């Protein structure tokens, strides 16, 4: 219903926690809350939540020697860090290094032309390998081709 007014109300309601509002802004908040039920409900819920948070604070005092115990536990924990703690990082670095070496090997490898290394699949007759590209003998060709 009051889309832009409601957005301004919400913004000003939030800003009222951080800074002092001007008289005009305070007047807008109060007049809009009277006209808009959802915004009045939002304002009420905000104040209720803040009051609950203020009331829920506890004033606890640590026991005597608490700080010394924390420092001692921290120092003991630092001593127990061994290879087991760092092993996942070491393994990850090793795997990354191997991957880099493989990539460099693939990239720097020279391209070779294919070489026929065997006569498998070639037509042979009595141990003789046929020439795959026989020379054209024009003397024996029919007269129409000459």
In short:
The protein is mainly alpha-helical. The chain has 5 helices and 2 strands.
Q: Characteristics of this structure?
A:
146 residues, two-stranded antiparallel sheet, 5 helices, 3% strand, 58% helix, 2 strands, single chain, mainly alpha
Question: How many β-strand stretches?
Answer: 2
Biggest sheet details: 2 strands, antiparallel
Q: Whole-number average pLDDT?
A: 77
Low-pLDDT parts are none
Query: What percentage of residues falls in helices of 4 or more residues?
Result: 55-70%
Order of helices and strands: HHHHHEE
Protein described:
Helix content is 58%, strand content 3%. The chain is mostly helical. Strands 1-2 form a two-stranded antiparallel sheet. Helix 1 (3-15) packs across helix 2 and helix 2 crosses helix 3 (37-55). The mean pLDDT is 77.
In terms of topology, how is this protein built?
Blueprint: H1 3-15, H2 23-35, H3 37-55, H4 66-79, H5 83-108, E1 124-125, E2 128-129
Antiparallel strand pairs: 1-2
Helix pairs in contact: 1-2, 2-3
